[in-house]
Specification:
1 helix; alpha+beta; elongated; two-stranded antiparallel ribbon; single chain
Length: about 55
């Protein structure tokens, strides 16, 4: 959509947190999203999670 930029910083935070825990990689990464009218009309929440491994 024009004028809307996604916030993709979540994947960077996932990697940073894994590295801070001593992990060498993150496997099984999943992306989940859903529309939320509780935050703002037209907002989409993105959830990223995975397993950090040493």
């Amino acid at each position: 959509m024009q004028g809307i930029e996604p916030d993709l910083s979540s994947s960077g935070r996932l990697a940073e947190k894994a590295e801070a825990m001593g992990a060498k990689a993150v496997i099984g990464v999943r992306f989940s999203s859903f529309s939320s009218t509780q935050v703002s009309q037209g907002a989409v929440e993105l959830i990223i999670y995975g397993t950090a491994v040493c």
